[in-house]
Design goal:
heterodimer; A: mainly alpha; B: 341 residues; mainly alpha; two-stranded antiparallel ribbon; 74% helix; globular
Chain lengths: 333, 341
């Protein structure tokens, strides 16, 4: 197949609708505030989006398998807090050098437990990862409660989150691009990618074809944990410190971005480009709501409604509305 | 007694010794949850220096009943092989609204209670409409509606506060003859909502849908109406929980952490109570005991002098152990192919 065919195949209907929505949102934004279309603003949005993009990359693979990872909020927390607190475990010298890999490794460990539970114990992924989320939370609370750990980001973490290795492209965006390219290649051109889609469609058949499907599931959960922890590391560098609930605002946007990008929640279908579209869409939407500030119009009418209300309600309504357009399931027949 | 009934009597008496084996899966689940709760509560009472005073039992019952109501709300969709991640948000929304309208005199209070219950029904019905007629996945649909409900809760009560009819709140949370009224409330919900639902056509249909939606459809079962009812009742139960929370705290607060905690713990309680997350098997009664088990974990930490901030860790471990125990069937499966769906 030609190269253009391969690229065209990545854009399914959901992806195109999501990208169209991004453009419409930007145009509406530009009418209110012309600076919306400036390259500076767009790069800044992509910079913010890359945090969501990295965590969504991992969770997408898990959703493609037909499972779900609800442990991401506190895996993000673990990634950030372990990276900043690495000196407490590895000593002052190694703790600074190995802070980033240590944080990612801790996230991968959580992913490993998730994967073992789901793949080998056959526990329902939803409840098992929810339980792991609580365990990770408990461990982190213990970590901060027992002895005051280091919560400052290292120089390297700050550089990773806000620096520009290539001029004009923020480092997190660069990381997201590299990660995304690797995933697109893996999903389309490697045996593992084929197996991920196949397991999501029917695990039984894949098992009968002589594939140890449990290893595929385990690998995806480990990857998901590592990606979430990497996001935590980047967020810690971005905010210059780590804190307990740093991952809490990421669960709903992550899942929403993946589903809006056309990935089937039941697994087996979905393109990575769709996830990219979903991530950008969610980020722009959140940014629009904080720029437009609808609560001001209501305050003029004498109704005092907190800003968060609009963020939550619009968010939920947009997700449901878009899914009603293209995310509906088949009728049972 | 006629002669012909004797052999059957004999058979049943022989079977009597294996009565545990003759229980349905849901009944076994209730029994296990009950035993876990009883043993945990005995340890709790035994470790308490003051022993089990009626006051303590009342406090424990109130806390447990809160989660039990939310867990029962979670049970209904789970039986249809669905899920309701918005129970926590509905619970918080009901709490915020109740702290605003369940106030003043008896008449206003009565209308207020009906208002909150109607709100719960409406939240559940919206979930049902989106899932049944919008044909969206329950997981993502209720995740999205939970954001909407929480947003509305914030609009109702931007700052924690409010009040509640004192007589009602006091009545709902005290005991008479050492029986906490919150337990009576749970009993009333079981007798007047759960049992009639379980025996109704649509309630049975919910179980059939959970076992196999395809087969249920082929048998002419009213799938859409059964699912609608399950989600709507779920909203109602969550709003009853919200009223009880208002009675306990005398105020309302729109906190995301409360909504998340109750949603998470409700799923845990449902699983411990013997309801299958794969649908078709389960009971709201089991979820009550599951909820009390989850709550007693926290109480046990206190009597064993373990730092209460570690509670999430232990709740998480209890959850993991509960699902892993459920996974022991993997070891019993003879044909390895049956492991894979």
């Amino acid at each position: 197949m030609s190269v253009s065919g391969v690229i065209a195949r990545q854009f399914d209907r959901a992806t195109l609708i999501a990208f169209a929505c991004v453009i419409v949102l930007l145009l509406i934004g530009a009418m209110v505030e012309p600076a919306f279309l400036s390259p500076k603003y767009l790069i800044q949005q992509l910079h913010t989006a890359s945090f969501l993009g990295v965590v969504a990359s991992g969770v997408m693979l898990v959703i493609l398998l037909g499972h779900i990872d609800l442990s991401i909020p506190w895996t993000i927390g673990v990634g950030g807090m372990m990276a900043t607190g690495a000196t407490g475990f590895l000593g002052p010298e190694w703790g600074v050098t190995l802070a980033v890999p240590f944080g990612v490794l801790c996230g991968a460990l959580i992913g490993t437990v998730n994967g073992l539970g789901v793949a080998y114990l056959r526990a329902p992924a939803m409840i098992f990862t929810l339980g792991m989320n609580a365990v990770a939370q408990g461990l982190m609370v213990y970590h901060t409660g027992g002895f005051a750990p280091q919560d400052r980001a290292t120089e390297f973490m700050r550089e990773l989150a806000v620096g520009h290795f290539i001029p004009g492209i923020p480092n997190p965006l660069l990381i997201w691009i590299i990660l995304g390219a690797a995933i697109v290649f893996m999903l389309n051109r490697s045996v593992l990618g084929r197996r991920i889609y196949a397991v999501g469609n029917q695990e039984r058949s894949v098992f009968l074809s002589g594939v140890d499907t449990r290893k595929v599931i385990l690998a995806c959960f480990i990857f998901s944990g590592a990606c979430a922890a990497l996001t935590g590391v980047l967020l810690a560098g971005w905010a210059n410190r780590s804190y307990q609930a740093m991952g809490d605002p990421y669960l709903l946007p992550t899942i929403a971005a993946i589903i809006l990008g056309g990935t089937n929640v039941l697994g087996g279908r979905g393109k990575y480009v769709g996830t990219v579209a979903g991530v950008i869409l969610i980020t722009i939407l959140q940014s629009m709501l904080s720029v437009v500030q609808p609560q001001r119009y209501f305050a003029q009418l004498g109704v005092d409604i907190p800003a968060d209300t609009f963020r939550q309600v619009v968010f939920g309504v947009v997700i449901i509305g878009m899914l009603l357009i293209y995310g509906r399931q088949q009728l049972v027949r | 007694m006629t002669v012909s009934s004797e052999p059957a009597d004999l058979v049943s008496r022989q079977k009597y010794f294996g009565w545990v084996g003759r229980l349905s899966a849901a009944q076994r689940g209730i029994l296990i949850a009950m035993l876990i709760f009883a043993s945990m509560f005995i340890v709790y009472g035994w470790k308490q220096a003051a022993g089990l005073t009626p006051n303590m039992i009342n406090t424990a019952a109130n806390k447990g009943a809160l989660l039990a109501l939310v867990a029962m709300a979670q049970t209904l969709p789970v039986i249809t092989r669905g899920l309701d991640l918005s129970v926590g948000a509905t619970f918080v929304l009901a709490n915020c609204l109740a702290s605003t309208i369940v106030v003043d005199g008896p008449i206003a209070t009565t209308f207020g209670i009906f208002g909150v219950l109607l709100l719960g029904l409406a939240c559940g019905a919206v979930n049902g409409l989106i899932i049944v007629y919008g044909r969206l996945q329950p997981l993502i649909a209720t995740l999205a509606t939970s954001a909407v409900y929480f947003g509305i809760a914030l609009a109702v009560r931007p700052q924690p506060g409010g009040s509640v009819n004192f007589e009602l709140a006091d009545f709902m949370t005290r005991s008479s003859f050492a029986i906490p009224h919150s337990v009576l409330l749970l009993l009333a919900v079981v007798v007047f909502i759960w049992i009639p639902y379980r025996r109704s056509v649509l309630g049975r249909a919910a179980f059939a849908i959970g076992s196999s939606e395809q087969a249920a459809y082929m048998s002419g079962i009213p799938i859409n109406r059964a699912k609608m009812l399950a989600y709507t009742l779920s909203g109602l139960l969550a709003s009853i929980g919200g009223i009880l929370l208002t009675a306990l705290t005398y105020s309302g607060a729109a906190k995301m952490s409360i909504a998340n905690e109750y949603t998470l713990n409700s799923i845990g309680a449902v699983v411990i109570g013997g309801t299958s997350l794969f649908g078709g098997v389960g009971s709201a009664v089991g979820s009550i005991f599951g909820a009390f088990v989850m709550r007693t974990v926290g109480d046990l930490l206190i009597v064993f002098d373990i730092n209460p901030v570690l509670q999430p860790l232990f709740v998480g471990v209890v959850l993991l152990v509960a699902v892993s125990l459920g996974s022991l069937r993997v070891l019993r499966i003879k044909n390895r192919l049956d492991i894979y769906r």
